[in-house]
TrEMBL record:
<dbReference type="GO" id="GO:0016020">
    <property type="term" value="C:membrane"/>
</dbReference>
<dbReference type="InterPro" id="IPR001199">
    <property type="entry name" value="Cyt_B5-like_heme/steroid-bd"/>
</dbReference>
<keyword id="KW-0812">Transmembrane</keyword>
<dbReference type="Pfam" id="PF00173">
    <property type="entry name" value="Cyt-b5"/>
</dbReference>
<keyword id="KW-0408">Iron</keyword>
<feature type="domain" description="Cytochrome b5 heme-binding">
    <location>
        <begin position="5"/>
        <end position="81"/>
    </location>
</feature>
<protein>
    <submittedName>
        <fullName>Cytochrome b5</fullName>
    </submittedName>
</protein>
<dbReference type="InterPro" id="IPR050668">
    <property type="entry name" value="Cytochrome_b5"/>
</dbReference>
<dbReference type="InterPro" id="IPR036400">
    <property type="entry name" value="Cyt_B5-like_heme/steroid_sf"/>
</dbReference>
<feature type="transmembrane region" description="Helical">
    <location>
        <begin position="112"/>
        <end position="131"/>
    </location>
</feature>
<keyword id="KW-0349">Heme</keyword>
<keyword id="KW-0472">Membrane</keyword>
<dbReference type="GO" id="GO:0046872">
    <property type="term" value="F:metal ion binding"/>
</dbReference>
<keyword id="KW-1133">Transmembrane helix</keyword>
<keyword id="KW-0479">Metal-binding</keyword>
<dbReference type="InterPro" id="IPR018506">
    <property type="entry name" value="Cyt_B5_heme-BS"/>
</dbReference>
<feature type="region of interest" description="Disordered">
    <location>
        <begin position="88"/>
        <end position="107"/>
    </location>
</feature>
Length: 139
């Protein structure tokens, strides 16, 4: 978080809950999506409906693309107040990070990559084993 980063309380965010003035709270950050509403492929209403509360789960439930996540950066206006982040955490709201300050969340890791990383050591051992076996058979 830089010195110029604006911090908004939940109460303040709740005031921006219409089509002509629409803020979303996601990942502990505040986004002014007013100008984006008409361009949102998922529609206007769905966004206005999730104002005034944490919309992280709503956003994640749709499994938005990397492009959508990149768009978030341009809509970022500041951080949610630490007290409100803490309240959301204690209320069990997911993804209200303690001190993360990036304007957009990290894209979720690709499950295929995670899987390959996990089995790589076993694959190497198997290849070495086969190679050794082949060598001793030839001798
Ligand atoms: C600033 C926040 C948001 C951005 C930048 C955004 C952006 C996008 C984009 C680019 C798509 C097209 C598919 C893709 O590339 O993933 C999309 C689709 C969609 N979004 Fe969002 N979105 C935002 C917030 C939300 C929220 C909070 C909800 C739910 C409450 C939502 C619901 C949907 C739905 C349902 C679709 C699918 C539309 C369809 O394929 O019929 N979006 N969004």
């Amino acid at each position: 978080m830089t010195a110029e980063t604006k911090v908004y309380t939940l109460e303040e965010c709740k005031k921006h809950n219409t089509e002509s003035d629409c803020w979303l709270i996601m990942f502990g950050k505040v986004y002014d999506v007013t100008k984006f509403l008409d361009d949102h492929p998922g529609g206007t209403e769905i966004m206005v409906d999730v104002t005034g509360r944490d919309a992280t789960d709503d956003f994640e439930d749709v499994v938005h693309s990397a492009t959508a996540r990149k768009q978030l950066e341009g809509l970022y206006i500041g951080e949610l107040h630490e007290d409100d982040k803490a309240k959301m955490r204690s209320a069990g709201v997911a993804n209200a990070p303690a001190g993360a300050s990036k304007a957009s969340p990290q894209a979720a890791p690709n499950p295929a990559v995670t899987f390959i990383k996990a089995i790589l050591p076993f694959l190497l051992i198997a290849v070495l084993f086969l190679y050794q076996k082949k060598g001793s058979a030839a001798a």
